[in-house]
Design goal:
The complex is a heterodimer of chains A (311) and B (252). With 311 residues, chain A is an all-alpha fold. Chain A is built from 12 helices and no strands. In chain A, helix 10 (210-247) packs antiparallel against helix 12 (270-302). With 252 residues, chain B is of the alpha/beta class. Helices cover 37% and strands 23% of the residues of chain B. In chain B, strand 6 (153-157), helix 5 (165-182) and strand 7 (185-190) form a beta-alpha-beta unit. In chain B, helix 2 (91-102) packs across helix 3 (106-119), helix 3 packs across helix 4 (135-148) and helix 6 crosses helix 7 (230-248). The chains are: A mainly alpha (311), B alpha/beta (252). At the A-B interface, helix 2, helix 9 and helix 10 of A face helix 2, helix 4, helix 5, helix 6 and helix 7 of B.
């Protein structure tokens, strides 16, 4: 009454097309190659022209539609031009700002400050995140505080920074750092937390020491999480910078986009205000598209993770 | 030192016991075992018999609570159920990383990695990334990676359990060929009776809670076996009978 073995191990009944007699190694190789070919995942990579077309066309069409509706409203309803300027007024304001050089100056000043502030934030946030991820006592003590700081709007630091540093670039950088450092550190921490324990075990089995494990296994594995922390860090840098520039004007602080916005408000020039808002938005989108999106796409595609949404 | 036997065992386990936590349940109890160099041993048991724990202890990933484990060659290579390839590296680079950690100089790594990938018939896939490979191909890269470690002992923790039957059948053949060619000592953990009877020179059945070695079968090695062959079936029936007895014991 031996049990039917096929019930015991049904998955063992493996059919095979090869003859039952001893097979030479070459036969196994062709068999394997055949199976590999059957199981190969066909590449579904889109051409870059098609990808750009799919990524660029819809938002551009939507934008054109919105501007058209705006223009139509201005033409038909004829609202007070100082309250609702038309698209052409905004374009005119941009032209004027370009002509007298304020636009170039403001964009360059803000971009430079945002960029430098962001890089300093990376330089501080990265080691901080590493320490937090690897040293438990620090994590227990500082972790909640850092998460709290991430929620605190960094504009709240502007009054204090003005009192400490006066109307100088230090004020602006301080506010930017308070906004960006927590995001970057937290991004790295969550990236490291999400490294599958199995990969660490493999690293250990392969003979990696502590340092090698960190540099060759943990950090590369944590890269996607770290990168989204960087992206968020940039967003916080840019926002904090604008807030700081709007509130803190004059002194030795240079003329940035936030200053331009505030200046336009003081002149009650709504066309220029809207133009500056569009500029701030435009720079943000440009940095995302030109810097972060391509890196992120490459990073995720190399790991077989498709980026969310089309960029 | 006492007089050494003619051949030192590749792995010697003496009175091994394992508990997780100070008063946790006993997972392994008094396991004593010695495995000869070049032997292919299958550790077979139902879920929770501690076979993976035993493997982890041999690998040095876990510490025993009592008893000793000695791996003559120092340390062992390990292969897991999921290939656990590094997803940011190509198949070739995954193997190269193992070579790098072993201390192989940079200019030799590339060629050596290709050689090892060719052993598992994947030299053409060296530039592919893990997500572009099928499950079976990934396990073969993992096999090449563990061969790159160049350790005499290879520990395998249900490496083919997640694969489909056709692929697994081929990988059995592949592994057997690699074993015959490289003369490695292999400890292969599985819950699949036929797999154990197909591959092992020695099949060790473990009982559950606590895990002990319940029985042992030695198979005459007269060349490659097929999983469909009558001797494998006969042995599977016998092992399954006892496996079921061991499982029934837990019902009370």
């Amino acid at each position: 009454m031996p049990p039917d073995t096929t019930t015991v191990a049904p998955q063992s009944v493996a059919p095979s097309g090869a003859p039952a007699s001893g097979r030479p190694a070459d036969d196994l190789r062709t068999l394997e190659s055949g199976l590999d070919a059957l199981q190969a995942v066909p590449s579904t990579e889109k051409g870059s022209v098609r990808r750009i077309l799919e990524g660029v066309l819809p938002p551009v069409l939507l934008l054109a539609g919105l501007v058209a509706v705006w223009q139509l409203y201005v033409v038909i309803a004829r609202p007070r031009p100082d309250l609702v300027p038309g698209p052409l007024d905004v374009l005119g304001a941009l032209g004027t700002a370009w002509a007298d050089g304020r636009l170039q100056l403001a964009v360059l000043t803000s971009l430079e400050r945002g960029g430098v502030g962001f890089l300093i934030a990376v330089a501080i946030g990265t080691p901080l995140g590493l320490l937090l991820a690897e040293w438990r006592p620090l994590r227990l003590a500082l972790g909640p505080l850092l998460s709290g700081l991430q929620v605190l709007p960094s504009v709240a630091w502007v009054p204090a920074a003005i009192i400490w540093f006066g109307l100088s670039d230090a004020t602006v950088y301080f506010v930017v750092l308070m906004g960006a450092v927590p995001s970057i550190a937290n991004g790295l921490v969550s990236g490291i937390d999400q490294v599958p324990p199995q990969l660490r075990r493999v690293g250990t089995v392969l003979g990696a020491g502590r340092i090698q494990l960190a540099t060759l296994v943990v950090l590369p594995a944590a890269l996607p999480g770290y990168f989204s922390g960087l992206k968020q860090g940039w967003a916080f840098s840019w926002r904090s910078l604008m807030a700081a520039e709007i509130i803190a004007m004059g002194g030795t602080i240079g003329f940035g986009l936030g200053s331009m916005l505030q200046q336009s408000r003081e002149l009650a020039d709504l066309g220029s205000v809207l133009a500056t808002i569009l500029l701030i938005l435009g720079v943000g989108i440009l940095v995302e598209l030109a810097v972060f999106a391509p890196i992120e796409r490459r990073l995720l595609r190399r790991r077989g993770l498709t980026p969310g949404g089309i960029r | 030192m006492s007089a050494a036997p003619a051949v030192l065992p590749a792995i010697r386990i003496t009175a091994l016991g394992k508990r997780f936590g100070a008063d946790g349940p006993l997972v392994l109890d008094d396991v004593t075992l010695s495995i000869q160099p070049g032997e292919f041993v299958c550790l077979l048991g139902a879920s929770g018999c501690g076979k993976s724990t035993l493997l982890n202890i041999i690998a040095g990933l876990d510490a025993p609570s009592t008893g000793t484990v000695t791996v003559a060659s120092g340390s062992a290579a390990v292969m897991f159920q999921d290939a656990a390839l590094f997803p940011w590296l190509t198949a070739g680079r995954n193997v190269e990383l193992a070579l790098k950690l072993r201390g192989v100089p940079r200019d030799k790594r590339r060629g050596k990695a290709l050689e090892l990938l060719d052993v598992v018939n994947l030299a053409d896939a060296a530039s592919k990334r893990p997500h572009e490979l099928s499950g079976g191909m990934r396990q073969r890269v993992a096999l090449a990676r563990s061969l790159a470690q160049d350790r005499k002992v290879l520990l395998m923790d249900e490496p083919f359990a997640a694969l489909d039957a056709i692929t697994r059948d081929l990988l059995h053949e592949e592994l057997e060929r690699v074993w015959r060619e490289t003369g490695r000592t292999i400890v292969f953990v599985t819950h699949n009776v036929r797999e154990a009877a197909r591959l092992g020179q020695r099949v060790l059945l473990m009982s559950s809670r606590p895990g002990r070695i319940a029985n042992e079968w030695r198979l005459a090695d007269d060349g490659p076996r097929r999983i469909e062959s009558p001797e494998v079936s006969r042995l599977s029936i016998e092992i399954t009978e006892q496996l079921r007895r061991e499982i029934r014991r837990n019902a009370a």
